# Entry
Amino acid sequence: MADGKKADRVTIRTVAADAGVSVAAVSKVLRSAYGVSDALRVNVLQSIARLGYRPNVAARGMRGSTYTLGILLSDLANPFLPQIIEGINAVAEPAGYKAMIGVGQSNVPIETRMIESMIDYRMDGLILVAPRLGPETLPAYAAQIPIVAIGHHEPDAPGFDTVNADDRMGAALVVAAFRARGHQDIGMISLDLGVDHHTNVSDLREDGYLAAMAAAGLAHMAQIRRLELNSPRSQGQLAAWLDAPDRPRAVFCWSDLHAVDLRNMAAAKGIAVPQDLAIAGFDNTYIAALPLIDLTSVDQAGTTLGRGSAELLLARIAGRRVAEHRLIAPHLILRGSH
Amino acid sequence: MADGKKADRVTIRTVAADAGVSVAAVSKVLRSAYGVSDALRVNVLQSIARLGYRPNVAARGMRGSTYTLGILLSDLANPFLPQIIEGINAVAEPAGYKAMIGVGQSNVPIETRMIESMIDYRMDGLILVAPRLGPETLPAYAAQIPIVAIGHHEPDAPGFDTVNADDRMGAALVVAAFRARGHQDIGMISLDLGVDHHTNVSDLREDGYLAAMAAAGLAHMAQIRRLELNSPRSQGQLAAWLDAPDRPRAVFCWSDLHAVDLRNMAAAKGIAVPQDLAIAGFDNTYIAALPLIDLTSVDQAGTTLGRGSAELLLARIAGRRVAEHRLIAPHLILRGSH
DNA sequence: ATGAAAGCGCTAACAC
DNA sequence: GTGTTAGCGCTTTCAT
# Structure
């Protein structure tokens, strides 16, 4: 950046001059647009390679596409997220798209600003992962830019697509696994977001849990305890819950995050798992798979979620208008905690 | 995106018209540049708020700054990274900068393309976290855009800044802790990157380990085993290493990633920790802190690294030319594994 | 099939 | 202190 000699910056004009063609021709080759002869294309491609030309994305963004997808993560801490990113990249890269990630820091205003930034950046489309944003704001953004949401249940939303694990089914799988072990006294630990929209995965998991309990004639035993995430307070509440004499003998945690905490807290208190307390989580993160944790958990195939969302987004960028809502069947990974 | 009516797009010109001033005046207010009266500023600010105007970042990028920092992560899997991001955001946000993250997928070509994309995007500066890129390519990029590297030791690099934990010291802390427990037979598990530059943190940790062993008169006992990351092969190698009758009784792992694996593998094989095998890791991730893992680990204050890198980057963007190289003292968190 | 030229929305000289 | 205007590098009609 030291010397901004305009002479040495390779632009589309440099390439055009080098190849002896017009800038319009170069632009067409760049976008593999219709209407260029093979000879011209080869010629231009050679110049591009020779000069090491790379298009200025900012300039492109002013008129056309940036070939960039924005990924908004509500929070970076969940070890489940890398799988999703991987899945997205697996589809985006070969299609010539780059993924840029923004982090919402579990905070609605920051998340909002981040989405607006991505729009202002003229990204071609957005994948929102577990957005904290409510269903009242999303459509407004979806009118400005193609959007796909993961971990956000709005099966009737007309303006954007969604990709989700079938969270109800995941909960049902857990209840069934507990019952197969003879449990009836099955509780659930869910997520306490300050406000809640019924678009959160934890809501659907609660639904699935309650439905499965009812179907098993155990509706009267069902109980849900909601805890915050990453708050010192919730640790105390978890401990108190664990110490209560009438606590359930089996517990379905909405996420591995809470399940792992619970598993460790039980160990610290000398409560035997699964004999005195059976536990199952959700997400099947690699922590659940560690032998010392050995947590039964619902696997929701993060890579598949990521791939699906990228496919939908690219199709939407390509022009699809009608919304699509995918539900992916999860499966339960049985380990020693249940 | 549906209707691109030019009429309804709010641009700097719309604001200027609404406020009854020139576009230059609006631009100056936007950048809080010198030379605008308070009255004009207030007037413009009101128009901006009324119209809900947001500057087009792509357009800004063509002439001036984008107020965006690019963060390149070599790989998203390490649970240590969120701390760094948090630290960066804590500095960038208040300064009016947005951070966008790109993932290198532990792959040099992808990492390279990502950096080039960020340059093409006209980001104002880059923070590279544990770049796989060698010292031969970095200066070329640093000539094009302000760069700060974290987890990359080049204390003499003139073109960019670095921020690192004092990895040698971290290793020495571990060796000292093992010796305090009476260990002499102390080995190390390090990282096997295909190629290695002596800029990797694992190299420095090896250095520190060897130096500490030598200083303690234990040079003859020192042994380093290098393993790949996330490869099925390395799991087998780790198991083989663990089964060898002459393996060390204490082992310093270059990262919690390997230390946690080792801890779990030991448990699975019925090897008592720390009696039959003492273990210490590096990074003090939250996994190390789980009671069931209970891993002694070097804490390198990720948030501090993140903050420091963002501060250096902003200063460099503001015009600083001379390189700065920060080393942050780590400390050892003692737990039950050593 | 190819090229000329008009912007996209903003910043930065430069006038006034 | 404020306004005018020439681009930044690209895409995109519209001629040819």
